[in-house]
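Suppose you are handed a protein chain with no further information: no name, no annotation, nothing but its sequence. What can you learn? This example shows the usual starting point.
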Amino acid sequence: MMDQRKLFFWASGAGLGLLLVWAIIQNVGKHHEDSGDQDGGDTETLTFFVHCTNEVAIVAGPGKETHDMNKLAFGSTLIYDNDVTEGPELSSKLIGRREGMAIMDNFAGENFYLLFTVIFEHHQKYHGTLQVQGTEIGHGDREISVVGGTGDFRGARGYSTFYLYTATPYPIIKQNFVIYKDSFNYKPSVDEKLMARYSPQ
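A reasonable first move is to predict its three-dimensional structure. Written in structure tokens, the prediction is:
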């Protein structure tokens, strides 16, 4: 199991690829989509794509001295910085950046503790940052907590799911944020505003 994970990490040469255990590859296509209506319309769902190119560094623990992804083990710490776009193509509209760190936090080498920030620089609706923190576990889709934010997302709470959208020509991650509307500066869409205006009182 560990050899499969390390081979994937090394072959991708990608920051966020390092955050995906071998089970993600085995479960591509078995994911589910989050819906903004799953909590009775009380959530806002934001979806974007993270491009895992080569912006990664091993800064502590096993693998640091040789920069060898095959040496990753308990305590390995990595930092990454990747483009976030509206669609899966690299030429798609740039939304911002996903920056943070990952620490291999169990002896079996199956999980990473993730701590990262998504910086919304060019989003059409929101500006600010979302903070995500937690250990990604399980198989298929990964789920971790939204613990806060800044700007329009100040005080945000909810969760984020992500999965490997494609592995070629490099790993691309599809990520969903599901955020409770009452926890941040929610901005209704044009359609929602029209419905509110003409709905019976």
